[in-house]
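Subject: Interface between my chains keeps coming out wrong

I've been trying for a while to get a sensible model of this assembly. When I model each chain on its own everything looks fine, but I need the whole thing in one frame so I can look at the contacts. Pasting all components below, labels as-is. Any help appreciated, I'm running out of ideas.
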Amino acid sequence: MQSKRERSKLGREKLQRIIEMCRSVEGRSLDPFLVDVDNVIHTVKEYFPEWEIPEDLNLDAETIHSLASVIKLQSEWIKHRSTSLYTDPFLLEEKLRHLSKEDMIEVFTKTWHPIIEMEQISIYSLTEALRYWASLLPLKERWKEITPAEVEAGFTTREELIRQRILRDKAFSEELESFWQELKQQVEAKGKDEKIRYWDFIGVETYEDTVQRAFMTSFLVTYGYATLEIIPLEEEIFIRCYEKPITKAGKKQLVSIPISVSADDWLKWKRGELE
Amino acid sequence: MSKRKGYYAGKVKRAIHMLFYQRHKKPGVKGWELRKALGSDYPKVLKILEDYLKTLDLQIKTVFEEEKPVEKPTSEELDKARFFVTLRGELTPKEAKMIGWRIDDLAGLAIAIAYIISKKGKARRKEIEEQLSEKLPGWKVGLNIDRYIRYGYLTQDEYEQLYLDWRTRAEVDQKALIDLLLTK
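Reply #2:
Try treating it as a single job with all components included. I did that and got this:
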């Protein structure tokens, strides 16, 4: 024997299911006759005496409301079927599928009476055009010659040009040489087997400087100060530093190795995720 | 020419100007505009004009606000209706091509209209796209449906359901289309 509480719970679930079913019929344009109205009314009647609290009575009212919407759809369905426009959609779909384009055109042109239209300037567009014309500045005003501002020639210093990054404070070869020395020191300090992880060498505090170091590293490798060792399976790249620059040209074919130094990679390196 | 005949001749000319030349974004003239320009007896003016147009294989088509045609319209319903001049007879497929329609596009339009009619006036865009993609290249299907919408043959709601729009109601004899399709 069911307790009152269990029966109420079951009743609520049934009403919820009815509401869901009615909504799906309404929302998905399903056949409204899928809903058995008599059965729904019987269920609503059966559980009505159980309802005491406002929430349950509200659920009961919502069920009736959903059912009314479905009954309305059923009535519209019957009305449509009784009109001369009703055709079995499956039959028509089949016809549409099997008719050739030419047959379709033949049928359509028999029932198509296109509108006769003549496009022309309207009073409205003419007024708009006149208004635009009146407010339009003459060409000589719109296309005034831009005279560049005159700037007097002056003097600057080498330090100022270095500050503005127009000149470097060292010659490139000097810079490369000191970078090579730095690589040697880092290999000794942090490296293993005379090599250091690529990112451990190029990675620094700012992304801009990291890119700059990657750029310089590429020259170290190209000019034979160091070489790259790539372990494909572990996706690791090492820089091996040479004691003396080695000239590779002419011995074997040089290859280019593209290495992405994106901001994301740099962030990962900073977070220690590029281990 | 009798005074009365002259009275209507002037109004017929005015009606022709209004109906043939596009005044708004959409073609056609609203009933209230005709009443304002021609007077309250504008339905009679249109009837006289219709007799003239018959000889030119043209007709005046009335599209009411309601989707279904109205048997005996009230003056209020006529005021809200839109009047167009359409072809009375039939176009040949060759002529349809001459007025700017490719055969594929026109067949696609016919399929979309017939399908929507069979689905009680509304159908999911996806279903129509499936129908069209059986005979049109996939990349063209979406473009074509957008074009039918832009021309006013179809309209689409926010749930991607397609309906027939004002131009289909003005230009296509829906019942004849379905009957002919079923007997083909």
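Reply #3:
Confirming on my end. The interface with chain B takes residues 29, 76-77, 80, 84-85, 87-89, 91-93, 95-97, 99, 101-120, 122 of chain A (CB under 8 Å).
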